[in-house]
Amino acid sequence: MNDRLRARKHFLLFGALLLTLVTQPLVAREPTAARIAYDLLIAGAALCVFFIVFGLRWERRLALVLMLPTIALTIAEYVLPQRHFVATAVAYHFSVSLFLAFAITVIVRDVFRNRAVQLDDVVGAFCGYLLLGILWGNFYVVVELLAPGSFSVNADIRWQLEDWHLRRALFNYFSLAVMTSLGYGDITGVAPLANTLAWLEVLAAQFYLAVVISQLVGLKLAQALRRNDSERG
Fold it and tell me: What are the tens digits of pLDDT across the range 112-167?
């Protein structure tokens, strides 16, 4: 990775995440080739996370261990009989959740290690916030798969629960709505575990904003003060 690209690495990551989230609903009910192409896009986004977020050798080794089952389970979704779908899907979302949780942990750690803040660091922190929403989206999917009916879904959009890709997109949408405290009422938790996950996500999101983002703001202010002192000196 050259110096110019390294200086904008989190912009690249943000673009990859945004592209996958925006295009996911568009491939539902499309031919298998289009769905496979989208899953390859997800794999590309995961590789962006892998190379951009994980800088140390042990981090990449652990991330690879967490990522490989996700790739295998994605392939299994296409080749295994339908009767194995729930088990495969639950295992897939569990594997993705572990990978995302590790990525978020590394991003937060790097934020607190920073002594100088650039715009790319701010974008990196926002990527962590976005990954947090995707992480909880996987949690919600697992709950609905294991206990169907855990969420009350508006009749006009309930059909999205029947599709592998649309289900993930729907609960990513619900997750981001919860963490930003936007409640449209089209999806609501009705089971105790679904409700518990929702308020835990709100706490996690508020913690991220209050602690991680405030750390960046504090570092930026410290930079400005040091710059002013050096100019006066």
Answer: 777 777 778 888 888 999 999 999 999 999 999 999 999 999 999 998 888 888 89
| CA–CA distance, 168 with 191 (Å, rounded to integer) | 19
Virtual CA dihedral for 90, 92, 94, 98, nearest 10 degrees?
180
Place of tokens 């899907």: 89
Size of the chain, expressed as the number of residues it contains: 233
The first and second tokens of residue 115, run together, are: 């002594």
On whether the CB atoms of residues 180 and 205 are closer than 8 A, the answer is yes
Per DSSP, 52 falls in state H
User: Which residues have C-beta within 8 Å of that of residue 11, sequence separation ≥ 6?
Assistant: 120, 123
What is the rounded radius of gyration, in angstroms, for the C-alpha atoms of the chain?
19
Say yes or no to pLDDT of 27 above 80: no
Tell me the three state secondary structure of residue 141. Answer: helix
Sign of CA dihedral 44, 212, 201, 175: negative
Instruction: Give this prediction's pTM.
Output: 0.89
Give the other-Cβ count within 10 Å of 121's Cβ. 18
Taking the CB of residue 140, how many other CB atoms lie within 10 A of it? 27
The ranges assigned to domains in the chain are 3-232
